[in-house]
Amino acid sequence: MRLPKLFALVSLLQFAVLPSAIAGPVLYEWALNIDGTLHDYFSPGALPPGVLADPGIATQTTGLGSVAVTVTGAGAHSVTGFFDHEIDELINTFFNEFGAVSGVAPAGLRWEIDEPGYVFGNIFAHVISGPLDNTNGVPAGSPDDVSLALAWNFVLGAGQTGHVHFLVDSVAPAAGFYLTQTDPDSGSSIFLSGGLEIEGGAAPEPASYVLLLTGIVGIALGRRYRQSRVV
Ligand SMILES: [Ca+2]
Ligand SMILES: [Ca+2]
Ligand SMILES: [Ca+2]
């Protein structure tokens, strides 16, 4: 179990410098596990080589945007993205929220929705040592502190490059696999999706470019939550 979340202190510090974030989502913590090496962000910090993140995630303000990870080297690889957002925390707390899963995960992608490990969740342990359990531990009707994770597992051949991305957005993907975090009291949701592209190798023509796009992530700020999104 992790140390208790610093609700009031961290929130007030965030909001003191980010007044626009009082309403809506804030990214409390995020982490990447790239081939067994954990990169954990409790505060904005330098990204590891091969990682690009949009400002909303890199600075942990809205937490919206994409994270792109480039991986090289023949053999097996794994890239896990973990995101612990709080929605409208100062209005209604960070533990009134729930998660949902939509669509069917493509081959090579694992997922998890859970309390982030301060009370009962095992998601962060799975982010560290794997595998994600493909389970929603904070479903509708059992609200708590929600965090989301996706993990890509893939094999690269000689000369190939893997491009993994994670996307958090305010608009639900039109199709594909994605995770949702909802604050039922404010009616706001965020959507996490991801993709894997494997480039290059023995057949460099465009046909060798494998695209496993699972959708887009979004936050429907100000929108009423629609029950049809719940799985
Ligand atoms: Ca909330
Ligand atoms: Ca779990
Ligand atoms: Ca959370």
Q: Helix and strand layout, with pairings?
A:
Layout lengths: L6 H11 L7 E10 L2 E5 L9 E3 L1 H4 L6 E8 L2 E13 L1 H4 L5 E5 L6 E6 L8 H7 L17 E10 L3 E10 L8 E6 L4 E13 L9 E4 L18
Antiparallel strand pairs: 1-2, 1-5, 3-4, 4-9, 5-8, 6-10, 7-8, 9-11, 10-11, 11-12
Bound molecules: calcium ion (3 copies).
Overall geometry comes to globular
Straight-line distance between termini: 28 Å
Number of domains: 1
Helix fraction by DSSP (H/I, runs of at least 4): 10-25%
Structural class: mainly beta
Radius of gyration: 17 Å
Query: Unreliable stretches, pLDDT < 50, 5 or more residues?
Result: 8-21, 203-231
Mean pLDDT: 84
The helix/strand order is HEEEHEEHEEHEEEEE
DSSP helical segment count: 4
Report strand %: 35-45%
Q: Major sheet: size, sense and barrel closure?
A: 7 strands, antiparallel
Give the total of beta strands: 12
Compounds present?
Answer: calcium ion
What does this structure look like?
By secondary structure, the protein is mainly beta. The protein is built from 4 helices and 12 strands, in the order H-E-E-E-H-E-E-H-E-E-H-E-E-E-E-E. The strands form 2 sheets. Strands 3, 4, 6, 9, 10, 11 and 12 form a 7-stranded antiparallel sheet that branches. It has a 5-stranded antiparallel sheet with strand order 2-1-5-8-7. The structure holds calcium ion (CA) (3 copies). Residues 112, 114, 121-123, 133, 135, 137 line the site of one calcium ion.
